[in-house]
Automatic annotation (TrEMBL), chains A, B:
This is Farnesyl diphosphate synthase. NCBIfam families: FPPsyn. The keyword Magnesium applies. It comes from Defluviitalea raffinosedens. GO terms for cellular component: cytoplasm. It catalyses: isopentenyl diphosphate + (2E)-geranyl diphosphate = (2E,6E)-farnesyl diphosphate + diphosphate. Keywords: Isoprene biosynthesis, Magnesium, Metal-binding, Transferase. GO terms for molecular function: (2E,6E)-farnesyl diphosphate synthase activity; metal ion binding. Belongs to the FPP/GGPP synthase family.
Amino acid sequence: MNFKKELDNKVEITNKYLEEFLPQPQGYAKVIYDAMRYSSFAGGKRLRPVLMMSAFEAVGGVGEIIYPFACALEMIHTYSLIHDDLPAMDNDDYRRGKLTNHKVYGEGLAILAGDALLNLAFEIMIKAAKKHKSWEAIDAIDIIASSAGVKGMIGGQVVDLISENKNIDEDILHYIHENKTTAIIQAALKAGAILGQGSNEEIKALERFGYCLGMAFQVQDDILDVISTQEELGKPIKSDERNGKATFVSLKGLESSKEYVKLLSQDAAHQLEIFKEKGQFLSWLSEYLMSRTY
Amino acid sequence: MNFKKELDNKVEITNKYLEEFLPQPQGYAKVIYDAMRYSSFAGGKRLRPVLMMSAFEAVGGVGEIIYPFACALEMIHTYSLIHDDLPAMDNDDYRRGKLTNHKVYGEGLAILAGDALLNLAFEIMIKAAKKHKSWEAIDAIDIIASSAGVKGMIGGQVVDLISENKNIDEDILHYIHENKTTAIIQAALKAGAILGQGSNEEIKALERFGYCLGMAFQVQDDILDVISTQEELGKPIKSDERNGKATFVSLKGLESSKEYVKLLSQDAAHQLEIFKEKGQFLSWLSEYLMSRTY
């Protein structure tokens, strides 16, 4: 199996379905559709949809139900980035080398575009659950909703926001990373496994895999913010330092952070053993992500 | 039946369930729970939950499933107000005589509190659908999600925002009113009727009743913004004029606006005829709302 080709294929499928699920710009409110599409097609890595599809396949899932869910996850991710970039939050002008949503459409429309993407994500998932008359789909929505809310992603964003320019300890940093990024990645894998009708053992293994991968990915982000160049990263480097944000690197040092990523990667690999050949793509993907430089 | 007492009772029930469904402030992200609760208990009229419960009862609905949905609707309403009040949108410092969310918690947390309320609304509805194993509940979520999104409430907010200080025509004003306020009120009645397992005829009548009531309510709002006092209204009057917003009153004149409210009220009353005695509360409520001065 050519894994890189398989990754590109999954990204392409995500883009195709996103194109379908994002309404065409039209009518008096046309500009909001443009704003939603602008950030949805601004060069995202589609990590969450790819992970979800891969978990679905690892447990032997078949059928179309995974695509609306994969797109919904990407929409939730995109909405969180649009709001996170706002002046009242991280105040970033660029993301992935492109102007952020509010720099193009203004703050008011950027707030509404984020709201609209979150709302649309639930719309799409509910319609898919109805269409397939699937209670697994309802379970999946429940997991995604919980991981995106105050006890997950939003909670992480809140603590991240109120911790700026403060000396925070490792517990709080762990809380931020576990919730701001990892919760949704974990949900991608767990919900994918549930939609694919995996066994309880498989669902648990993929959930733990998601935890390890999500945390490793976040610590890696902290590392890259320090050692990468703006050209490679597509956004200003050392933004964490400028924003007075504590990171794994600032709290634990560069070497210790790299060591932690390695440990998490090993744990992640271990979780995939029960899937044998069906886990190979996730195994490759996890190594691929850990060796990235951008 | 003492209708005013029945209204107070429904408001009280909504408050009781909101108290239950809004998580208790705790943990590192405690402040966001505070912010969510602040706006949720800032004196809202609970119009949407009351309408939803009333539609449920008008079709003979029984059981607990209506309460999480009624609370979810109120959370969606509250999130939209928090975001609408932000400096990038309407820039209001007061609502219902109290400081707006961002004036108390800052813009970043206000954005996140709004996001969190929208997300929580879906969480609560999905959990209720799971608990009751009810496909009517899935239908209701679908209706609410659609009416809250770009083809409903958010679309209305967008056109409202981009129309500031512009000469807009009646078609655009209709679009704004139909979508910004009416869509959700209509959804409250339709979803309530579906959750109560009403007949198709009953669902249709309540949907139309919701349209008439929502539009009348909005035009009434425009009227009150001109003829009421700040003390009565609990917020600055003539804010539409200050914000350069076209209203029914500015486009059609005060008398013609009052006449339109009357016509809509008559149509609304007509829709309730099939419910006979079970429609009496909605009938009284609609008249009560149309005669309000705040």
